[in-house]
Every structure is written in C-alpha cells, then in structure tokens.
Amino acid sequence: MIEIRVHGRGGQGSVTAAELLGFAAHSDGKYAQAFPSFGSERMGAPVQAFVRISDKPIRIRSQVYKPNYVIVQDPTLLEVINVLDGLQEDGLLLINSKKKATELGINTPIKVKTIPAMEIALEVIGRPIMNTTLLGAFAAATGEISLEGIRKAIHHKFPGPVGEKNIAAVLKAFDFIKKESL
Amino acid sequence: MSTTFIEGSIAVAKTVGVCRPQVISAYPITPQTHIVEHLSELVANGELKCEYVNVESEHSAASVVLGASATGARTYTATTSQGFLLMIEVLFNIAGMRLPIVMTCVNRAVSAPINIWNDQQDSLTARDSGWIQLYAEDNQEASDMHLQAFKIAENKDIMLPVMVCMDGFILTHSFDPIELITQEQADKFLSPFTPQYYLTPKNPLSFGTMVGPDGYMETRYFIEKTMQVSLQVISDVAADFHNQFGRFQGGLIDTYKVEDASLVLVAMGSIIGTIKDIVDELRAKGQKIGVLKVRSYRPFPKDEIYKALSHVREIAVVEKAVSLGYGGILANEIKSVFYGKPKTPKINGYILGLGGRDITIDTIHQVIKDSVNVLSEEKFIGLNEALIKR
Questions:
Q1: B8-17: b or e for each residue (b if 16 or more CB lie within 10 Å)?
Q2: Is A58 touching B (CB cutoff 8 A)?
C-alpha cells in the first residue's frame, strides 16, 4: 500500500486533488481511499488531504502519518508547516513552485521535485487552480497512477470544456517532469 | 463486480434514493450535510419522486417524518450530534407510535465543548428510545444497510424505526470503491410500504394519544418483545441481502478470526477496519487475536455474542463513547453477557477516539498491550498527558 499526503490552502482544491488521485488509481484497477483531514475548512487556511492506493482492499481508517509521497500545492506552506513530517526516506516531495528544488532551501536527503504548476495552469486553463496540473507531474514522477486514469477522473469530475483544459494542463506537467528526468 | 469511486455520503444518499422514500425531511448539519444535500438534488432534478420538506430545525424534521409515516408514507431523515439531541423527544414518540422510519445518525461528538468530529456519543444517548440501532463498519456496509433497514423496519412483525449509524467524517467524507445498488435491484429486494394501519379519512385513527397507568406499561412490554423478535428479522434480512447481492458483513454481529482467538477486541463502526489490519499483523507474529463487530446494538444480541466469545480468555472492548459516571457503555453490556455463565473471561474496557481524536495503529497496540497485562477498570487510551497534568 502507498500513502499520499496533499498539503494546500482552503480553496486550492486539495481534497479534490486527493479524490482525483483515488479515482485515477481506482480506474487503473487498484483499490483506493481518499479523504480530507477533517475540520472546518476556511479559505486560505492550511489543509491536508490523504490518499491510499493498494492492490488489496483498504481497511485502515486512521489518518496518514508515514506517507510515501507528499504533494505541496502552495509553496508558502513550506514556511508554516513541516511538510516533510513522517515522509518516508525513499519517498518523494513534489512542490508547486517555479523555483528549482535546490533553490527552496529544503534540507533533506529525501528526493524533492518542483513543477511550475501555477504557471502551467494559468497558461493552459486560464485560472490559478493548479491541483489537476500537479496530478500530471505526480504521475510522471512516480508512475503510481496512469495518465489515462487521471483523464477519466477529470472527465468524471469536470465534464465538458473545463475538463479538457485541465487534461491539457495535466499533459503539459507530465511532459515537463519527463523531459527533466531525461 | 463493478465499483464506483464515490464519497460515503453520496453512496448512502443514492441507496436511500433507490429505496423510493416518499417523504424526506431533514435539516443540514456537519458532517451529515452531504447526504441530505444529495437527496435534495435527486428530488430537485426529478430523479427521485419524493416530497422533500425543508424545515427550520431537527425537531421539526423528525416531526414531519413522524406525521408523514403515520399517513403510510415511506420516510427518511438524517442528522448528527446536536441535531440528534434536538430530535430526541420526537425519536421516542416515533418508536412509541411504531412508525417504521429509517434515519441515518452520522456519529459525532456532543457539546459542550462544541466539537464537530466523530465519536458515538450521540446515537448511544438514544439507546433506550425503542429504535433499532445498526452500526456500519465501512461505506459499503453503510450504503447496503439502508436498504436492509427499510425491510427490517416495515416488517409487519416489527414496525419499529431503524437508525443506521455511520462514523462522521471517517466514513461520510471518505471516497471508497462502492458497489452501488440499482433501482431494479432495490425494487427486487424491498416491496412497497403497505402498512396495516395508517391515517386516512376513510378509517379515522389516533396515534400517540394519552394512555394512563392502566395501559402504558403494555406499550413498553410490546416494544421490548418486538425487539427480541427483530433479532431474527435483522439476521434474516442480512441473509436475504447476501443471497441477492452476494455481500455479507454480518447479521447481528460479525467476527474476524475469533474462532481460535485467546484475545478478542469488541467494537462498533469504522474502527473495525483498522483493528482487522492489526489482527493480521499480530497473527503473523503468532498472537491469537480476533475482533468481534457489534452490528446490531439495539436489539443487543447477547446470545450471539456469548456463542462467539464463550471460548475466549480475554476480551478488550474499545468504544468511542462514555457513560459519564460508569465508564464504557458497550464494555458494561459485554460484561453483562457473561453474567451467570460458567466461565467468565477477563473483560477490559477502553475509551478512545472521543471528539475525533484519531485512532491510530499505535492506539490499538496500546489497548492490546494493556489488555494482555492487566485486569483494568475502564480506561481512557490516547490521552494527552500534557493537558492532564497542567
């Protein structure tokens, strides 16, 4: 089983990102569970959401404490909370930022990747919502979910032209990470 | 079998929808809101032919479904926590009038202090109200239980309301793969509601009129007797469901690796899933451990519990509620199961997860470690020592 923690701020679609990740894994034929960190969500306040993906039915109902992957939607959160908390040593920290990982001053032996998801979202979708864009980067960086799975998830959640734009942003982010690793 | 990746609340709303309720009345309250929002959407979109009555409070919501049910309509409501407590006067009336209403109690802590997170104090407060209470382990069971609930409630030998209890947030806000019930499947399982008596000008009746000392006691006697009959009906309906859908998550109880266990954890609701993972982990290390799920809390299936646990040396009851002044509610009832029996196991009670405190793998390990070592009074597990010593 792999576990994912998504950090964001209220209004950035962190819970939707978790839902879409779970939906994509489910379309890929895996078992999945996605849930928010429960609370009174307020615009701008730090929020978390969690995903579990497994080959077997998922029974555990506690929150995620030792994630394999952490996704950070808002780079300003790096100053506020320890996004590395509990992240496994062979895991990955994926951050929405136009800066390179080395420029962010994160002191960790754990692999860190950045993606200018906000810039991609503004260019392709035309709105400052980068949760779906990050999914493309996540798929490219980890291989845990397929692009086809993300496409199905986005079509389900956002039918019509809005979904198409989001999928275009996903593809762009996917290519960005793939090219970087060449 | 094909599953849909869907939020627990929406899965429940969809199941309630295919049960063809004729009147729904509810007042939104966190974390129940998504259920009733989705149902109102189904009604507004014309997908569900049903009278959806908006009200100004939970007391009114319960009163609306009471009146509607008395006219012979299939009715549904849902609430949680403070809303549940505001309903409670009407909940006793509904049971006393023998109205087969189905309601979801999304389990949440009660005030004060105000807390919107999960425990099971709300529904357990209505333990003695005459409602049948079923507790769901996961969202598949929560969804399936609603179809079963209408069939149990409307059985002519029962005619009692049924409360489906599901853990707030932990289940309601979690997305999981769910086998949804189609309209065709629901229609095959559940016949239209045809009450033997209901309010109609053609045959005037009164419900809930005053009864003096000469008759009141018998109304309680009959509900208690019916509760005993419902033990069989709940089992039968779960078996019918198993036959049609191929899914079975227990009748009155469910057991996991209990047969040869020396230590068994007893619990209700979503904590069962986490415990099952720990049971497998510890069994791999040679510890003979199992878990018993109390699925039907009222009626309380004492014979089934005794049968399942009579060979067990140690029992640890874990629960998310407390009878302030006498410890764990479920723990005390599990102890009473063994009263007068030839062999009494060691029974420890643990209170945890109140007000949404997360129940982790470590929490359950603490319970098991404590339980193996000592015979304890009811104990709180997972307390913040810094707050206590302050």
A1: bbbbbbbbbb
A2: yes
